[in-house]
Amino acid sequence: MTKSLFVMHKRFIDLVYPQNVTEEIKKLSDEVAPPMTADELLKNKSILKDVEVLFSGWGGPTFDKELLDAFPHLKAIFYAAGTIKSIVTEEFWERNIKITSAYEANAVPVAEYTLSQILFSLKSGWKFVKEVKENRKYPPKPFHHIAGGYGSTVGLISLSTIGRKVNNLLQNFDVEILAYDPFVNTEEAAQLNVELCSLHEIFERSDVVSLHTPLLPETVGMITGEHFQVMKNDATFINTARGAIIKENELIEVLKERPDLTAILDVTYPEPPTKDSPLYDLSNAIITPHIAGSEGPECGRMGAYMLSEFKRYLNGEQLKWEVSKEKFKTMA
């Protein structure tokens, strides 16, 4: 029977791999040792000589040459989390080990969070929260700064895994969808029912702009103050990607100059913002503590996805969410 091992932060293992998932994995494999942390693993390398598959997640080990040498029979890693940036090295790709990640599972709650904020923003929800609390009364109708969910425009920056899920959800609403993604051609855009346009146009034409670009060296600081300056009156910017993709100091200056704009930031740079950050004082900056991704029982979806992948592995089938070296280069 396939020899297996669980290695990740013990605080999260029961969330990510719920009991029903763990029990099924144990029925399908022979666990060489109880679940352990990355530190415990490094102190007990002798148990790794027979391990064929590793189940991991947040807090998993980094697979450098020293660790890989202790895994002579390792054939596959099932990583129940999103990004694998912190665990793979160049040496890893030379070993021909399969790695599959729950990035698709983690994209589900991010897309759901984003949809909730897009719809709420099209109703000017955060503006009304502020106005009602400040004035202790409702503003008179007709409300002047509601784009609404009929005929309004939503701009998606990057049709990544999450961006595509958001787009799919938006197809149920009467909104125009713009997209900026240099890797998507017009034929594919037509299939996705989006209009491709420039990054400048996304900000200029959209009532809500949602950022889904992966953090790569070439995307650091790609969103600048100039983009925020050209936004429509009462428009909203949502960031569930990474804080470093935007020039935060320039965003802050625009938010000071234009109180009509709203920025919903589930991610910042640094994270959380420093205690003296102006973001805390700006009423048009909404900060949530990186909650868009899997939280609570939602984390169990990631483990369930890895169980499905393990079954495919055992059946000799193609892994559905396998990450290749080429794919890795453009992933978050």
**Mean pLDDT reading:** 96
Q: What name does CATH use for the topology of the largest domain?
A: Rossmann fold
Number of helices: 14
Compute the number of strand runs: 12
Structural class: alpha/beta
How would the global form be characterised? elongated
CATH superfamily of the largest domain: NAD(P)-binding Rossmann-like Domain
Tell me the series of helices and strands, N- to C-terminal: EHHEHEHEHEHHEHEHEHEHEHEEHH
Q: At the first level of CATH, what is the class of the largest domain?
A: Alpha Beta
Q: Separation of termini?
A: 35 Å
Query: What is the strand content?
Result: 15-25%
Helix percent reads: 25-40%
Give the count of structural domains.
2
CATH architecture of the largest domain: 3-Layer(aba) Sandwich
Low-confidence stretches: none
Strand order within the widest sheet?
Answer: 8-7-6-9-10-11-12
Q: What is the radius of gyration?
A: 22 Å
Largest sheet, described in full?
7 strands, parallel
Write a brief structural summary.
With about 325 residues, the chain is an alpha/beta fold. The chain has helices at about 10-15, 20-30, 40-45, 65-70, 90-95, 105-120, 125-135, 160-170, 185-190, 200-205, 225-230, 250-255, 300-315, 325-330; strands spanning about 5, 30, 55, 75-80, 100, 150-155, 175-180, 195, 210, 235-240, 260-265, 285.
What features would you describe in this structure?
Helix content is 37%, strand content 15%. The protein is built from 14 helices and 12 strands. It has a 7-stranded parallel beta sheet with strand order 8-7-6-9-10-11-12, sandwiched between helices. Strands 2-1-3-4-5 form a 5-stranded parallel beta sheet, with helices on one face. Helix 12 (248-257) links the parallel strand 10 (236-239) and strand 11 (262-265).
